[in-house]
Amino acid sequence: MEDRQELHPKVEKSFELIGKKWTGLIIYVLMSGPKRFSELSEAIPALSRRLLTERVKELEEHGIVIREVIADRPIRSEYSLTQKGIELGNILGPISKWAESWVHD
Amino acid sequence: MEDRQELHPKVEKSFELIGKKWTGLIIYVLMSGPKRFSELSEAIPALSRRLLTERVKELEEHGIVIREVIADRPIRSEYSLTQKGIELGNILGPISKWAESWVHD
Description:
transcription (chains A, B); alpha+beta; transcription regulation (chains A, B); Arc Repressor Mutant, subunit A; WH_DNA-bd_sf (chains A, B)
């Protein structure tokens, strides 16, 4: 019981993070590999570029996403999942399956 | 790609549901078996009875929790997870583990 009580704030934080609109989907899209901002934006057309910027920044702050600058011509940046992000993404997969079976439109 | 786009609204709905403050924890507590309202309330002391009532009602509406009236003396009711709820609970377990490893207070 004590352990569970102690875990509460961490678990609650995680649920809140995952529950923020679009966060789960951004992680889900990045599971298929690094993406440029424009590719992320195209993958989730209903999400505005302004809100995508905000969500990606939050995910960077949580250490789930990293932005890497690629020394290419022209210089460009790519977003990818950290180890923490990949492990979270692996958990979100089963949620998609659950949604498919149980959630009705 | 088409399939993923179609799945989006369902997945998004699920993430939003799980992300609502306390929802995940209520499901987590019910994974250990049916609980009376007072037991649920005691298990999550930081959650007010008013908000617990609201969240449990939402979970009932989503078919995740059912309230059963027990023909005992005095008559009492118990909350338990449906099959849909149990399957969701099974997914939430790994999120707790992830939180324990990666989320800092």
